[in-house]
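Saturday, quiet lab. Running sequence design on the C-alpha cells for the scaffold JK sent over.
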C-alpha cells in the first residue's frame, strides 16, 4: 500500500447548527494530523455549503462527502461544485457518491430501481460535465459496484463493514485504487457499556437490506442481526475499548488492504456535539 491515512467520519460536521463550531473542530483535526473529513451530504438537491465553508476555513485537510446521493442531486450541479473546489483548493475535495437505500429514497417519492444502472448513468453525466474520474469515489459494497469503482473512479468508500470486506474490496479494486472504509468505534473499556453504545448505531443499519445482504456474503445470519446485532457481529464491525485497543481494531483494516480508514467515534447518536477528546486520544496512538 502506498498510503496509510487516518481520516474522520463524523455526522457532526453537517449536523452542527453552528458553522463556527464545525470549523473549529475541523481546524483542530487538521492540526492533529488527520488526513480527511468525511460526512454525509444529506438528501438535498445540491451539495451543502458546509463542505465549501470547511474547505475555505482550513489549509490542508481533505474534505469529502460520504455520500452525495445520486437520486437527489444532478450530475451537472455536483460536477460544477467539484470543479470549483478543485480550482480553489487543489487536491483537497473528493466527491463521494452512493446509491443510498430504498427506504430513504422512496420516502421522498422517488422510485428506487436499478441502483447500479442509475450509478452508471450518473457517472456518464459527470463525464459529460467534465469531471475527471480521479476526483470521485463510490460507496461500494457488492462485487459489481466495487468493479465500477475500480473502472470509473478513484476507488471505494465502503461503510459499515468488517475487515473481511476490506480484504475482498482490495482484491476487487486492485492495487492502484483508493480504499477508504468507514469504521465506527467506541472509546469505552467496559464491554457492556461499549456494546450498548455500539448497538444504538448498529440497530438502524441492520434494518437496511444493502448492509445485511452484504454481511450475509461473509457468513452472518438473521440471528446476528437481531436485537441490534450479536456480540460477535458488533465486535467485528465496531472496534471498542481503550484508544490502543481501538487502534488495534483499525489495524485489521489496514492489514486487509485499506489505504485510509475513516474513523467515526460513536457518542450516543448526538450529531450536535463533537467528541473532541476521543479524537485527541486516537491521534496520539494512530498518527
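Result came back. Writing it out in full:
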Amino acid at each position: 500500500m502506498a498510503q496509510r491515512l487516518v481520516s474522520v467520519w463524523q455526522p457532526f460536521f453537517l449536523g452542527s447548527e453552528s458553522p463556527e463550531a464545525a470549523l473549529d473542530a475541523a481546524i483542530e483535526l487538521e492540526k492533529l494530523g488527520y488526513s480527511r473529513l468525511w460526512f454525509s451530504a444529506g438528501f438535498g438537491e445540491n451539495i451543502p455549503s458546509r463542505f465549501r465553508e470547511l474547505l475555505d476555513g482550513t489549509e490542508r485537510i481533505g474534505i469529502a462527502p460520504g455520500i452525495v446521493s445520486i437520486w437527489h442531486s444532478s450530475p451537472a450541479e455536483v460536477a460544477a461544485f467539484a470543479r470549483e473546489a478543485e480550482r480553489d483548493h487543489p487536491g483537497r475535495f473528493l466527491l463521494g457518491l452512493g446509491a443510498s437505500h430504498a427506504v430513504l429514497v422512496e420516502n421522498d417519492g422517488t422510485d428506487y430501481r436499478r441502483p447500479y444502472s442509475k450509478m452508471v448513468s450518473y457517472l456518464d453525466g459527470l463525464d459529460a460535465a467534465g469531471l475527471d474520474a480521479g476526483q470521485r469515489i463510490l460507496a461500494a459494497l457488492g462485487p459489481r459496484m466495487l468493479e465500477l469503482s475500480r473502472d470509473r473512479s478513484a476507488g471505494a468508500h465502503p461503510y459499515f463493514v468488517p475487515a473481511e470486506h476490506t480484504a475482498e474490496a482490495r482484491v476487487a479494486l486492485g492495487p492502484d485504487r483508493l480504499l477508504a472504509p468507514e469504521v465506527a468505534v467506541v472509546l469505552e473499556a467496559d464491554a457492556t457499556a461499549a456494546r450498548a453504545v455500539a448497538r444504538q448505531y448498529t440497530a438502524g443499519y441492520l434494518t437496511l437490506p444493502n448492509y445485511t445482504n452484504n454481511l450475509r456474503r461473509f457468513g452472518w445470519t438473521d440471528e446476528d442481526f437481531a436485537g441490534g446485532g450479536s456480540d460477535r457481529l458488533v465486535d467485528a464491525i465496531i472496534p471498542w475499548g481503550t484508544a490502543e485497543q481501538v487502534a488495534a481494531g483499525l489495524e485489521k483494516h489496514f492489514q486487509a488492504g485499506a489505504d485510509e480508514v475513516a474513523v467515526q467515534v460513536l457518542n450516543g447518536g448526538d450529531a450536535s456535539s463533537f467528541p473532541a477528546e476521543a479524537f485527541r486520544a486516537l491521534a496520539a496512538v494512530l498518527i
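Notes for JK: The chain is about 50% helix and 15% strand. The mean pLDDT is 94. Ask whether to fix the surface positions before the next round.
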